Automatic annotation (TrEMBL):
Activated by phosphorylation. This is Phosphoglucosamine mutase. Residues 378-443 form the Alpha-D-phosphohexomutase C-terminal domain. One of its GO terms (molecular function) is phosphomannomutase activity. Pfam families: PGM_PMM_I (PF02878), PGM_PMM_II (PF02879), PGM_PMM_III (PF02880), PGM_PMM_IV (PF00408). Mg(2+) binds at S108, D245, D247, D249. Gene3D superfamilies: Alpha-D-Glucose-1,6-Bisphosphate, subunit A, domain 3 (3.40.120.10), Alpha-D-phosphohexomutase, C-terminal domain (3.30.310.50). Catalyzes the conversion of glucosamine-6-phosphate to glucosamine-1-phosphate. InterPro entries: A-D-PHexomutase_a/b/a-I (IPR005844), A-D-PHexomutase_a/b/a-I/II/III (IPR016055), A-D-PHexomutase_a/b/a-II (IPR005845), A-D-PHexomutase_a/b/a-III (IPR005846), A-D-PHexomutase_C (IPR005843), A-D-PHexomutase_C_sf (IPR036900), A-D-PHexomutase_CS (IPR016066), Alpha-D-phosphohexomutase_SF (IPR005841). Keywords: Isomerase, Magnesium, Metal-binding, Phosphoprotein. PROSITE patterns: PGM_PMM. Belongs to the phosphohexose mutase family. Residues 3-140, 164-258, 262-372 form the Alpha-D-phosphohexomutase alpha/beta/alpha domain.
């Protein structure tokens, strides 16, 4: 089984993801990422490679980051330890100081016992699949073992958080004066920086989920538990609630009445705001096949093209880079604003969503009316071969359902990337119709 998944290497910390594995992975990363033209030019002049490392506040992050630092430094790489910061902060800092690569220790929205290792290339971009495969192969090969003055140094990246905060504030088109924002930081990596930048931007801020103790990350708070945020927004009479996940690469929101505003609606609001300012290249939004049909319709009505990719932020970013597009993301709230970030940034997204509220004078509920959500039903058909999604009888049934729904719905069959399972997703004008069609297709998939 491949070591790298859809977003780095993840597993149970000290179970499948051990300090030994982290050290070996770091050593292999130094071997592979030290082979590029720029890296070799630096080495030829006697300069060591430089890497940025950051982590979320999971208790296991301390020993895993220490192992990664040991692996890199023992391979002749100078390491700048940025401490606890969001994943997008690590990506930004790599580009900001022109580091050769970087590592983020986080398992995002997973529970505290899990952890993960994400590797970013020069510029703060995620690694292509082929580079990850080379790193995995290099783990069994020879390591770099410099001695004496050639070993790497490990030092504290003392102004890392300040650099990131200033970058976020500089991105804003206007201040957030007059807004009362409730921030749910998921007891995660944004617990320090997110409240700081929202307050500095002019918002009145109420904070929940910002007391990380190493084991409470994502526990009953954050983007996977929006009921807590919704209740606090209503209780305090706030204008909006912003929820991050553990590493703050996602943003979901709730309006003043506690209604959820998901990634599709957030992208719709931001797309219109960016188009109005002339900051939406080619008037195009990039999203995945899972985004709601309502988003497609809303964008068409406003003269915005929607490009669709496979599920996964890496595919969204790949298409954005190919077309030089400025906005993309997923229904889950992983939104990429490429003018300011190389990956999803939940703090950046939340700031710009609130900036549009402050500029327009409209409530979040009013802004979210830009799109009408089509009822969506998702059924995970487990215990079947993933290839069932492309079998003739299944494809024929899906085509027939698509024809019957016409312009009022759509069907998506998608094999799981990690399990023996096929996902059946149906959108229709009513929930009952979506449920009926999904149930019928699921039966066909089961065979």
């Amino acid at each position: 089984m491949a070591l790298f998944g859809t977003d780095g290497v993840r597993g149970l910390a000290n179970g499948t993801l051990t300090a030994d594995l982290a050290l070996t992975l770091a050593q292999a990363t130094a071997v592979v990422l030290g082979q590029g033209r720029i890296a070799e030019a630096r080495l030829a002049t006697g300069k060591r490679l430089t890497a940025v490392i950051a982590r979320d506040p999971r208790v296991s992050g301390a020993f895993l980051s220490a192992a990664v630092e040991a692996g890199l430094a023992s391979s002749g790489v100078d390491v700048l330890d940025a401490g606890v910061l969001p994943t997008p902060a690590a990506a930004f800092l790599i580009a900001d100081i022109d580091a050769d690569f970087g590592v983020m220790i986080s398992a995002s929205h997973n529970p505290a016992p899990d952890n993960g290792i994400k590797i970013f290339a020069r510029g703060g971009v995620k690694l292509p699949d082929e580079v990850e495969a080379r790193i995995e192969e290099a783990m069994a090969g020879p390591k770099l073992q410099p001695t004496g003055a050639s070993v790497g140094r490990v030092s504290r990246f003392s102004d890392a958080e300040d650099r990131y905060a200033l970058h976020l504030l500089a991105s804003l088109p206007n201040r957030l004066n007059g807004l009362h924002v409730v921030l749910d930081c998921a007891n995660g990596a944004a617990s320090g920086v997110s409240p700081e930048v929202f307050r500095t931007a002019g918002a009145r801020v109420t904070v929940i989920g910002a007391d990380p103790d190493g084991i409470n990350i994502n526990e009953g708070v954050g983007s996977t538990h929006l009921d807590v945020l919704a209740a606090e927004v209503v209780r305090t009479g706030a204008d909006v609630g912003i929820a991050h996940d553990g590493d703050a690469d996602r943003c979901l929101a709730v309006d003043a009445s506690g209604n959820v505003v998901d990634g599709d609606k957030i992208m719709a609001i931001l797309a219109l705001a960016m188009k109005r300012r002339g900051h939406l290249p080619a008037d195009t939004l990039v999203t995945t096949v899972m985004s709601n049909l309502g988003l497609h319709r809303a964008m068409t009505e406003h003269g915005i093209t929607v490009e669709t990719t496979a599920v996964g932020d890496r595919y969204v970013l790949e298409r954005m880079n190919q077309g030089r597009f400025g906005l993309g993301g997923e229904q889950s709230g992983h939104v990429i604003m490429s003018e300011f970030a190389t990956t999803g940034d939940g703090v950046l997204t939340g700031l710009h969503l609130c900036a549009e509220m402050a500029r327009s004078g409209k409530t979040l509920a009013e802004l979210a009316q830009v799109m009408t959500v089509f009822p969506q039903v998702l059924i995970n058909v487990r215990g079947v071969e993933r290839s069932r999604a492309t079998d003739a009888d299944v494809v024929a049934a899906a085509d027939a359902a698509t024809a019957a729904l016409g312009d009022s719905g759509r069907v998506l069959l998608r094999p799981s990337g990690t399990e023996q399972m096929v996902r059946v997703m149906v959108e229709a004008s009513t929930h009952d119709e979506a449920q009926r069609v999904a149930d019928e297709l699921a039966e066909v998939v089961r065979g």
